[in-house]
Amino acid sequence: MSKIRVLIVDDSVVIRRIVSDVLTADPELEVVGTAANGRIALAKIPQVNPDIITLDVEMPEMDGLETIAAIRKLYPRLPVIMFSTLTQRGAATTLDALTLGASDYVTKPANVGSVAAAQQSLRDQLIPKIKGLCCKLETPAPKVLKASVDSTRSHPSVRLGQSQSRVDIVAIGVSTGGPNALAVLMPGFPADFPVPIVIVQHMPPVFTKLLADRLSSLSSLTVCEATPGEEVRAGRVYVAPGDYHMIVKRAGAVVRIATNQEKSENSCRPAVDVLFRSVVQVYGAASLGVILTGMGQDGLRGCEQIREAGGQIISQDEASSVVWGMPGFVAKAGLPDQVLPLNEIAPEIVRRVNKGRPERQSSRVMPSIR
Fold first, then answer.
1. Which of 278, 287, 357, 367 sees the fewest Cβ atoms within 10 Å?
2. Bridge-partner residues for 9, per DSSP?
3. What residues contact 157, with CB distance under 8 A and at least 6 apart?
4. Among residues 84, 165, 175, 287, which one is catalytic?
């Protein structure tokens, strides 16, 4: 099997050396070139023919935003991972880059104490994303496989003969490609959407607050980074804060948000499985789980629990996913009611949520009591 060819673009000589050393040590990767800015990178792409590019955000002459815009015009399918700092400015620029077509991002190791720690951080964060974006087939699905699925349409055998429960909450899990997927999804919800939406997007601190603000500007609904103790209300959207698991908990007559920093699950914090488990505990069969683009299989166990409780599942299809990892595992396990292209998911959610409801709703929908 041929190695994955990587072009490293960063204005820092030190960073280029550290990233090169880490990637070269992996037998499946090959560093075919480096560049100090975007202008040099554009000249090198046809020379070295990379499979993927790691791209610094802040560079002289031609920065990451200008470069990703140029790459997308010339090489629309070439995967690009942004390499950014964990600061508000870095996060905002990274989100801009994702909007312009970057495939994913990795935060630069900072204050890790040693070169060895920085290298380990890159091995943990960067290498899996490079392989995930360059390999069309991920790790084989686990033994929970129950049925094959047409990745572009519904899977009617899943719900044959079963009635669908009323939906009182929508829980969404997403990772690689998520900011753009959510930017497509959120405008599809009407201002009078009658249930709450809770979201886990795999992102670090700072990024999640900026993401929530951007989604709020695109949506008729209020989107916010969730805060502990906040009441879960109909028509509001809660994004899990970076580095914290988010759960929902019943507190008397209301449901509230809680967060914690318990151990990561599926190498993720926040984790989709953690949120989905709590949603099932509170809302039971009235839960609708949605799994969008992303690497790995976070959300698979949570979707199993939603199905076992009688709830509903929608999964994004392969063609519209940046990486068909998370939704692919769920689809291949035979769990979704439907597997849909991204642009069809919001209308389907709205249809399912409105099913069995009168046209006019009160401002709050109370969760079902199990």
1. 357
2. 35, 55
3. 147, 334
4. 175
Strands in 29-35's sheet, in edge-to-edge order, are 29-35, 4-9, 52-56, 80-84, 104-107
Which of 28, 27, 30, 103 shows the shortest CA–CA distance to 64? 103
Tokens of 299: 């959300």
pTM of the predicted model, to two decimals? 0.86
Catalytic residue among 298, 315, 321, 337: 298
Distance CA 264, CA 269 (A): 5
For helices 178-185 and 342-354, angle between their N-to-C axes, nearest 10 degrees:
50
* CB atoms inside a 10 Å sphere around CB 360: 7
Answer yes or no: 298 catalytic.
yes
The active-site residue out of 202, 245, 320, 321 is 202
**CA dist., res. 364 & res. 190, Å (int):** 15
pLDDT tens digits, one per residue of 27-82: 999 999 999 999 999 999 999 999 999 999 888 899 999 999 999 999 999 999 99
The CA–CA distances, whole Å, from 131 to 123, 151, 296 equal 11, 22, 11
